[in-house]
Amino acid sequence: MKRLGVLCCCLLFVSLLPAARLHAQQASTASQEIPKAVTEKLNQLDQKVAQAQSSADNAWMLVSAALVLMMTGPGLALFYGGLVRHKNVLAIMMQSFALMALITVLWALVGYSLCFGGNGPVIGNFAHALLRGVGADPNPDYAGTIPQMTFMVYQLMFAIITPALITGATAERMKFSGTLLFMTLWFLLVYAPMAHMVWGKGGLLNASLGGHFPTLDFAGGTVVHITSGVSALVCALYMGKRVGYPKQPMPPHNLVLSFIGACLLWVGWFGFNAGSALASNSLASSAFVATHFAAATAAAGWSLAEWIKNGRASALGAISGAVAGLVAITPAAGFVGPMPALVIGFIAGIFCFWMVTRFKAMFGYDDALDAFGVHGAGGTIGALLTGVFARAIYNPIYGAENGVNRPTGGLDGHWIQVGYQLVGIAFAWVFALVGTIVILKVVDLVTGLRVTQEQEVEGLDITQHGEEAYNLEA
Amino acid sequence: MMKLEAIIQPSRFESVKDALLEIGIEGMTVTEVRGHGRQKGHTEVYRGREYTVDLLPKIKLEIVLADSLVDRAVETILKTAKTGKIGDGKIFLSRVDDAIRIRNEDRGENAL
After folding, report:
1. Per the CB 3.0–4.6 Å rule, which of A99, A121, A144, B106 could disulfide with A140?
2. CB B46 to CB A370 under 8 A?
3. Is the ipTM of this complex over 0.90?
4. Start-to-end C-alpha separation, chain B
């Protein structure tokens, strides 16, 4: 887009030159300067070009923001809703929906500022608290062509879905009040610092705005998926198993819901990843393609593994695989080409299949809907592979030297990036682990975490919300 | 008067119903039930967890018949409900003392 603008200006300039020269000759003055009217006109055109670019970028970013919200509700809500037993479907959907409300308010008050205000190494500041200074003007540190208002609301949607992912691990047994308190603290103490460290100016792990350990994370492999996945594992271990697990059968109550949810997640992910280009440009296109390709091979990879192991490829396997691939490509989407995206997806599909079937069984924790097995594991493998496959021709994030792009990942010969990725991964793991343990202790003391055994057996829909999803006699 | 209870495969239900209608049996009560006899059910796998589903869906027909119709009804059900595989179900016959039509208080076989 920028290149196009420059080109337009050049063309215009060249086409105006003869006229200007003629004018100068006719006036037969000695002045070599371009007449004032022409410079004015050029400035006006420059502005017009910038406005046009801003309009295009803003349109795409608003659509992307809406797509990412759609991933939580109804996408994730349906995906998780179908996987629980019928007595808990409203409760799990309500948790996602409640986060759409809760995190939005927190975001407006302090969240945005804690993530993107200031330039501290660990967390933002209160400069943008109550959205002070967030208006029509762009914030050139992050997205120079769209109103900061758009950037703010786009980032909000990420902050909503991240804690919502954790509810997959605590499903069917966590109190609603405990969930709300946990999520409030988790958003402020885990998400906000992680988002600032990786994406915020001056953040410790930021790759382009002065971080010490430049971690490549295009759309949230560390910030979104590792933090939520690892926290999910901690929650599952801390809270213990559901009553009757693993002896009592707990099959998904409606895989059709999960299927629709997974398809909505796939589509929404275009807003998540391609939108993370923060402009409607060629980077968005390449991230879009990488996203789609990885989902495809991951669905195939998981299905293949299942086919070999169980003799059949299931619908639940295919959709779980697609989600695993989308998770793994999230950090890589804006750094890798289409062919590596196919590889990343395939690896993630098989790896996550192994994580939810074998690894979980080996350790016996009750990660009810596999939030860790898909998001924690997929995010980790994706962040690692980003370091291997990132190439500067797709995204010269480290800038250029003498007209040549500086290398980004292993395929560019910059293998140290894999080391940086490991640092970023380790940071996200430790941060999520420690933060979540502390928060769980606090919530346990204040509201309690689990419903009573009787309530759990009766179901959370009735005991937590006083309603049922399926009133067949009504 | 006899009560006939037949537990059959859901896939055979439409054929059984049509065949019974053909021999003049017009009333029946149908329930969707679950159960198992010697048939052992099947296994389902969700994300690597195996579940044995041993209660399988069946259809239960309940018909109260005049004695003269019982043999033909049994014959018809045997013919139409049989697939030859385990899980085809069972027929139970029992004697019924009386029947009363609620609308006009007809009794016995007149009420059927």
Report:
1. A144
2. no
3. no
4. 9
Among the partner residues A246, A251, A360, nearest to B46 by beta-carbon distance: A251
Whether residue A358 lies within 8 A of chain B, CB to CB, comes out as yes
Residues of A in contact with B52 (CB under 8 A): 249
Q: A333, A272 in Cβ contact below 8 A? A: no
* Residue ranges in chain A whose pLDDT is less than 70: 1-32
Q: Domain A74-465 is of which CATH architecture? A: Orthogonal Bundle (1.10)
Confidence (pLDDT) at A402: 92
Residues of A (315-344) whose Cβ lies below 8 Å from B: 316-317, 320
User: How far apart are the C-alpha atoms of A135 and A147, rounded to whole Å?
Assistant: 6
pLDDT digits (tens, 9 = 90+) for B83-106: 988 889 999 999 999 999 999 999
Q: What is the tens place of the pLDDT at every residue in A82-115?
A: 999 999 999 999 999 999 999 999 999 999 999 9
Residue whose entry in the numeric block shows the structure tokens 């037993």 = A85
Q: Which sequence spans correspond to the domains of chain A?
A: 74-465
pLDDT per position as a tens digit, B11-65: 999 999 999 999 999 889 999 999 887 767 788 899 988 888 888 889 999 999 9
Domains contained in chain B, CATH given: 2-111 (3.30.70.120)
Mark out chain B residues that contact chain A at CB-CB < 8 A.
44-49, 51-52
CA angle B50, B51, B54 (to 5 degrees): 145
B46 to A310: CB separation less than 8 angstroms, yes or no: no
Distance CA A265, CA A168 (A): 15
